[in-house]
Amino acid sequence: MQKRDRLQTKRRRNAYRLGLGAETLAALALQITGWRILKRRYKTSAGEIDLIAKRGKTVAFVEVKARKTRDAALDAVTYRSQQRIGRAARIFIAEHPKAGFFTLRFDVVIVRPWRWPERLADAFQPPFD
Question: In the chain, what are the domains?
């Protein structure tokens, strides 16, 4: 294996660990505020949703972003990622028809160093494609 390949593999592994840690912290923050985590890293053929959480009559599809600044995190929730999350959410609803009776929304949780996670409720509406 080339040195360059090992470096890329190491970066990917570190990014994976950072993302997993951020999702764990985001899930904890949601649970403390009364949310129940239904799914973590929900994978579909359309893509992945970091967290699916429920509180009362609301189901939130949550994208978690670990970045140094709030703006960098918001910039990372691109049009394309919104499409992917929306498609995956439609698959979740098709697999769990009762979810259609709840208020559905798309939240973003920003995880920054040395700060409590910031949740942006109803942060976006996925584009229809």
Answer: 3-120 (3.40.1350.10)
pTM here is 0.90
Closest CA to 71 of 102, 112, 116: 112
The tokens describing 69, both together, are 């600044």
C-alpha to C-alpha distance for 39 and 53, rounded to whole angstroms? 7
Residue 40, phi then psi, degrees to nearest 5 = -120, 135
Q: In degrees to the nearest 10, what's the CA dihedral of 102, 61, 55, 29? A: -170
Q: What is the pLDDT of residues 24-73, one digit of tens each?
A: 999 999 999 999 999 999 999 999 999 999 999 999 999 999 999 999 99
